[in-house]
C-alpha cells in the first residue's frame, strides 16, 4: 500500500475512535495481589497464587451459612461481587475482568532474536524471514504450551476452587489471541450451568496498532474459516481498516479505543448477572485497559492472566469536554537491516529512513 492510497476517510478512521463518553471506570483494590505495589509483575506467577486472589474475609460472608466456612475463597469472592452489584444503583456495575495475554508468537521470538532496536526499525516491518512468518503472527510451540498451562490451571481452579467460570468471553481478532483463547478454554469441563465457551471477536481488543506487520490482522473470511462457530461482532470489516504500515496510534489514542470497547462490555444486555468476563488480548492493549480503569501498571508475561475487579459508573458528562480522538504518528524505519547498538537503531548511511510500508501485507 502506498501512502498516496490512504484516503482521507481511512486516515480519519485511523485517527479517531469514538469513546464511551458517559462511563467512568475504577479498580476496586484489596482483593488481588496484582493490585498491590509490593507485588512484582516480573516474578508474578498467577498459577502459584490462585490468580492472585488474596486470602481474606469479605463483608458479604456474614450472610452466608457458617460465614461461608464451607466455601472456597473463589466462591466467597464471587458472592462478594454479587453483593456489590445488588447494593449498587442502576448506574453502577461491577465486573471481574480476567485479562489474558496471548502466548508467545513468532513476532515475540523474532524480537528476542534480532534485539528490540533492530526489530522496531526494520525487521518488524517485514512479513517474516526465511524461517518464520510474523505478519499477524501465530503462536510458537512455546506459546501453545503457555496457553495449555492456562487451560490446565483453569481446570484445576474449577475442580479445587469451584471457581465461577466466565459468563462472557471476548477475544482480539489477531491470530495469536484467537489461538490462545482456543487452547485455553476449549475442552474445559465447565461446571453445570456455566456459560459455554462461545467467544465474541472484537476489533478494538487488538494490540497497540503500530507499523509492525504483526499488528495487521487477516481478513474476516480468514478468521471465520479458522473458527467458524465463533461470533464476530457486528460491523466487523472484511479487511483491516486500521493498520496501514505508515502511522501508529499513540497511547492517548489507544486509551480512547480501550474506553470504547469497555463501554461495549459493561452495561450490556446481559446486565449485572454476568460478572466474570474473559478478555484474551495483548500486552499493549491490556496495559491500556489497566490505565483506563485506574489500575497500577502491571506488565504480563506471554500467556499470563490476571483478574481485576472493576467498577463502572454512568455519569453526566459535558460532551464538549470528552476527548474522542487523538493524533496518530508516523514512524520512520530503515529500508535495509540496521546498524544497531544495545539501546538504539541506526540505519546505514546509504539507506535513509522512510515512512512508507516495506511490505504490502494481506
From TrEMBL:
SUPFAM superfamilies in the record: Phosphoglycerate mutase-like
KW Signal (keyword) present: yes
Keyword Membrane recorded: no
GO CC, alphabetical: cytoplasm
Keywords attached to this entry: Signal
SMART domains according to UniProt: PGAM (SM00855)
Signal peptide: 1-19
InterPro entries attached to this UniProt entry: His_Pase_superF_clade-1 (IPR013078), His_PPase_superfam (IPR029033), PGM_Phosphatase (IPR050275)
Pfam families reported in the protein's UniProt record: His_Phos_1
GO molecular function, a single term: phosphatase activity
Protein name: Phosphoglycerate mutase
Species in which this protein is naturally found: Penicillium daleae
Amino acid at each position: 500500500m502506498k501512502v498516496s492510497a490512504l484516503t482521507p476517510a481511512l486516515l480519519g478512521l485511523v485517527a479517531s475512535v469514538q469513546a464511551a463518553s458517559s462511563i467512568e471506570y475504577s479498580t476496586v483494590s484489596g482483593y488481588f495481589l496484582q493490585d498491590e505495589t509490593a507485588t512484582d509483575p516480573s516474578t508474578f506467577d498467577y498459577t502459584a497464587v490462585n490468580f492472585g486472589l488474596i486470602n481474606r474475609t469479605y463483608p458479604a460472608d456474614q450472610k452466608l451459612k457458617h460465614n461461608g466456612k464451607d466455601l472456597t475463597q473463589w466462591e466467597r469472592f464471587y458472592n462478594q461481587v454479587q453483593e456489590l452489584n445488588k447494593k449498587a444503583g442502576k448506574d453502577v456495575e461491577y465486573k471481574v475482568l480476567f485479562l489474558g495475554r496471548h502466548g508467545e508468537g513468532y513476532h515475540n521470538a523474532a524480537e528476542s532474536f534480532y534485539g528490540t532496536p533492530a526489530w522496531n526499525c526494520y525487521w518488524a516491518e517485514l512479513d517474516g524471514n526465511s524461517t518464520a512468518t510474523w505478519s499477524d503472527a501465530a503462536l510458537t510451540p512455546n506459546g501453545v504450551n503457555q496457553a495449555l498451562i492456562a487451560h490446565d490451571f483453569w481446570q484445576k481452579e474449577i475442580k479445587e476452587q469451584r471457581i465461577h467460570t466466565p459468563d462472557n468471553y471476548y477475544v482480539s481478532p489477531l491470530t495469536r489471541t484467537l489461538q490462545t483463547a482456543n487452547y485455553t478454554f476449549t475442552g474445559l469441563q465447565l461446571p453445570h450451568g456455566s456459560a459455554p465457551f462461545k467467544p465474541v471477536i472484537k476489533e478494538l481488543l487488538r494490540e497497540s496498532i503500530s507499523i509492525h506487520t504483526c499488528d495487521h490482522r487477516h481478513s474476516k473470511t480468514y478468521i471465520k474459516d479458522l473458527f467458524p462457530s465463533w461470533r464476530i461482532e457486528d460491523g466487523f470489516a472484511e479487511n483491516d481498516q486500521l493498520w496501514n504500515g505508515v502511522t501508529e496510534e499513540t497511547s492517548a489514542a489507544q486509551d480512547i479505543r480501550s474506553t470504547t470497547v469497555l463501554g461495549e462490555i459493561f452495561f450490556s444486555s446481559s446486565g449485572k448477572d454476568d460478572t466474570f468476563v474473559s478478555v484474551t488480548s495483548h500486552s499493549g492493549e491490556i496495559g491500556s485497559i489497566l490505565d483506563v480503569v485506574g489500575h497500577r501498571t502491571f506488565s504480563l508475561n506471554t500467556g499470563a492472566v490476571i483478574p481485576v475487579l472493576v467498577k463502572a459508573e454512568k455519569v453526566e458528562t459535558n460532551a464538549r469536554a470528552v476527548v474522542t480522538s487523538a493524533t496518530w504518528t508516523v514512524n520512520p524505519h530503515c529500508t535495509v537491516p540496521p546498524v544497531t547498538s544495545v539501546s538504539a537503531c541506526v540505519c546505514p548511511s546509504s539507506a535513509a529512513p522512510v515512512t512508507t510500508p516495506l511490505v504490502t501485507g494481506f
